[in-house]
């Protein structure tokens, strides 16, 4: 299963580690460059440094080919908007934490 996670904080990192342990393909979207580098180095996965409410960023993350899109940023409004955009971009399943 291919999963895109918006938000690379504690929840996003834990979710990514859990999915990787079950051999899923994971991509993370995170706006903070330093955290992007840390995530990419520690998890050895693609990390897109950008805003999850940007259609261009979601296209770069190839959400259209994702089986699931999960938004776990620290901002509920951003999570909801990111899920709406991801669904319109072609993600099969979207979920947010609110």
SSE map:
Layout: E1 2-6, H1 10-21, E2 25-30, H2 33-43, E3 47-49, H3 55-60, E4 68-71, H4 76-89, E5 94-96
Parallel strand pairs: 1-2, 1-4, 2-3, 4-5
Instruction: Give the helices and strands as they follow along the chain.
Output: EHEHEHEHE
Strand pairing plus helix content: what structural class?
A: alpha/beta
Tally of helical segments:
4
Could you tell me the strand content as a percent range? 15-25%
* Number of DSSP-assigned strands: 5
- Main sheet characteristics: 5 strands, parallel
Average pLDDT figure:
95
List low-pLDDT spans: none
Alpha-carbon distance between the two ends: 24 Å
Q: What form results from the Cα inertia axes?
A: globular
Strand order of the largest sheet: 3-2-1-4-5
Approximately how much helix is present in the residues?
A: 40-55%
Give the oligomer, counting copies of the same chain as homo and different chains as hetero: single chain
Tell me about this structure:
The structure is a single chain. With 98 residues, the chain is α/β, with parallel strands linked by helices. It is built from four helices and five strands. A five-stranded parallel sheet has the order 3-2-1-4-5, with helices on both faces. The radius of gyration is 12 Å and the shape is globular. The mean pLDDT is 95.
Features:
4 helices, single chain, 98 residues, alpha/beta, 21% strand, five-stranded parallel sheet, globular
Write a brief structural summary.
By secondary structure, this protein is α/β, with parallel strands linked by helices. The protein contains four helices and five strands. Helix 1 links the parallel strand 1 (2-6) and strand 2.
